UniProtKB/TrEMBL annotation:
It comes from Nothocercus julius. This is Neurturin. Homodimer; disulfide-linked. Interacts with GFRA2 coreceptor and RET: forms a 2:2:2 ternary complex composed of NRTN ligand, GFRA2 and RET receptor. Also forms a 4:4:4 tetrameric complex composed of 4 copies of NRTN ligand, GFRA2 and RET receptor, which prevents endocytosis of RET. GO terms for cellular component: extracellular region. It is found in: Secreted.
């Protein structure tokens, strides 16, 4: 139960009053220095006035930078990697030699290789939901199947022609993506 006869004071008492209170049967309560509520109030009003001077766009940038700094301090590089994984499906390009394509041709000619990269967070279709259910109930076991759409080429660029290291002429079709989408 509460002892209402005892009074707590935020101001430290004098040594004489401490000596008399220590002789009572109740232990002495820890004492804190008084809080300056006026100081906090004036600080809040100063920040309020400062924030009111910003435009809405400036406030958004400021808050975004603070949130990013805070989340970056917590997770470090992990947060950046997580954000990088959630880029939408899009067409990317890279200039490579024909030999680097891995098709077995030896050539120093370079081509512009366009490819699809990103995640597909679109709405799941009935197929995707059913496939996920069949996998979770272990009706489909060993096959490697994906229960969500993936980023793939929807159309391809024109055929690519080149000379190999032995001056033979080759044409490769459907090499470079022209348009990407979630399939």
């Amino acid at each position: 139960m509460l002892n209402r006869s005892r009074k707590y004071s935020p101001v430290p008492s004098s040594p004489a009053s401490r000596a008399s209170s220590s002789s009572s049967s109740l232990p002495a309560a820890p004492r804190r220095s008084p809080r300056a509520l006026d100081r906090h109030g004036s600080l809040l009003s100063q920040y309020g006035a400062l924030l009111e001077s910003y435009t809405e766009g400036e406030l958004r940038r400021l808050l975004g930078a603070l949130v990013e700094r805070r989340s970056g301090a917590k997770a470090g590089g992990r947060a950046k990697r997580a954000r990088a994984r959630h880029k939408p499906c899009a067409l990317q390009q890279l200039e490579v030699s024909v030999s680097e394509l891995g098709l077995g041709y030896e050539s120093d000619e370079t081509v512009l290789f366009r490819y699809c990269s990103g995640t597909c967070d679109g709405a799941l279709r009935s197929y995707d939901l059913s496939l996920r259910s069949m996998r979770s109930s272990r009706r489909i076991r060993k096959e490697k199947v994906r229960a969500r759409p993936c980023c793939r080429p929807l159309a391809y660029d024109d055929d690519v022609s080149f000379l190999d290291a032995y001056n033979r002429y080759y044409t490769v079709n459907e090499l470079s993506a022209k348009e990407c989408g979630c399939v």
